[in-house]
Specification:
single chain; alpha/beta; D-Maltodextrin-Binding Protein, domain 2; 2 domains; six-stranded mixed sheet; five-stranded mixed sheet; 17 helices; 43% helix; 17% strand; globular
């Protein structure tokens, strides 16, 4: 009997619906031997929830191995070589991966930038027009480039009216202070550090503004390999469930959860709190973490709308938006159908089985 059938059976009786996650898991997965799951992500608190699953034994059916790999391209290539199962990364890569023939799917939106991303300008720059012909620092081929390009067009400037330079993080901070670039897209803590270090610098845009929240542009996602989804589907479902069980546990135990994530990511608790917040509300930090229902709604796999005036099934619109931009930036040749890179059936199966996170 598959996990899906077991889960459906366990959740058909009203009394079972009141069971704790631990008891449901015991009913549905105790007979399964622990399955190895290999997960990769770079050093970022938003990817740290699997450390909670490990530390609190929230998925006893799984032997989760989380590897910190700073280059997401390396992680995706490991998936292609069947040496990795899951990758946590920014949510714009899928169209590029599809065109390159990588056997991966975006299976979930993980979190939405809620102020952690900023476009910071140097002294004397107050508008998009002021940047014409000047150099700006972004991660070329990443969300920061799309963020910058969309902001330029939103404010009446052509997206290619600036010179994009592939400089990020500390190097971008140094370039701003040295006057090498006129503006940069930063994530925390680099944006705040730049504002503190560079007199006269200012914020031109930040991702907590309603426009960016509704668009869902600056976000992280979870990817799975095609083999993992199709050949080890029960394990893929358990892995997704472990993620959302961990998010729910963190929301109820934010202080301990942030410490676990800090230890797992080898970061300070203060930096984790800057990104995730302190109270588990998901709105007092720089990221808004999607729970199961919100992610399923964004995928179009559960009824209702996700937060911030987003729409049910918006993941397809997100695919079209980022694909259009990658065509403009000559990163891909054409826009492919969303089903070539998006897999929402895992959310759908869990929802139909009665899981709600």
């Amino acid at each position: 009997m598959t996990l899906l059938h077991q889960l459906k059976k366990a959740l058909t009786l009203p009394a079972r619906l009141a069971l704790t996650t631990t008891t449901v898991l015991a009913c549905t997965g105790a007979a399964m031997a622990a399955e190895d799951v290999r997960i990769a992500g770079y050093t970022w608190p938003g990817y740290g929830f699997f450390h909670i699953a490990i530390a609190k034994d929230l998925a006893p059916e799984l032997n989760i191995d989380y590897q910190t790999i700073e280059d997401p391209y390396e992680s995706f290539n490991l998936v292609a070589a069947d040496q990795m199962d899951v990758v946590a990364s920014t949510a714009e890569f899928t169209p590029v991966g599809v065109e390159r023939g990588l056997p991966i799917k975006l299976v979930a939106f993980g979190n939405l930038s809620y102020g952690t991303d900023k476009i910071v300008a140097g002294p004397g720059i107050a508008s998009a027009a002021d940047l014409a012909g000047k150099e700006v620092a972004v991660l070329e081929g990443g969300l920061s480039q799309i963020f910058m390009a969309m902001w330029l067009e939103q404010n009446g400037a052509d997206f290619d009216s600036v010179v994009y330079r592939n400089i990020i993080a500390d190097d971008a901070l140094a370039a701003m202070i040295g006057g090498g670039v006129a503006a940069s897209q930063f994530w925390e803590p680099y944006g705040s550090n730049t504002l503190k270090a560079l007199e006269g610098s200012s914020v031109l845009a930040q991702s907590r503004e309603p426009y960016w929240l509704k668009q869902g542009v600056v976000a992280d996602g979870y990817y799975m390999g095609d083999r993992f989804i199709n050949e080890r589907r029960d394990v893929a479902l358990l892995t997704m469930k472990a993620l959302y069980d961990s998010i729910e546990w963190w929301s109820q135990n934010p202080e301990e959860g942030n410490q676990i994530i800090a230890d797992g990511m080898q970061m300070s608790v203060a930096d984790v709190e800057l990104v995730l917040g302190k109270d588990g509300s998901r709105t007092d930090g720089g990221l808004y973490v999607y729970n199961f229902m919100e992610a399923a709604q964004f995928c179009g796999s559960a009824p209702g709308n996700p937060p911030f005036d987003q729409t049910n099934g918006q993941i397809n619109d997100h695919w079209a938006l980022v694909s259009d931009w990658w065509v403009k930036f000559d990163l891909i040749e054409k826009v492919q159908p969303p089903e070539t890179g998006i897999e929402c059936s895992l959310h759908k199966e869990l929802y139909e089985a009665g899981y709600r996170g």
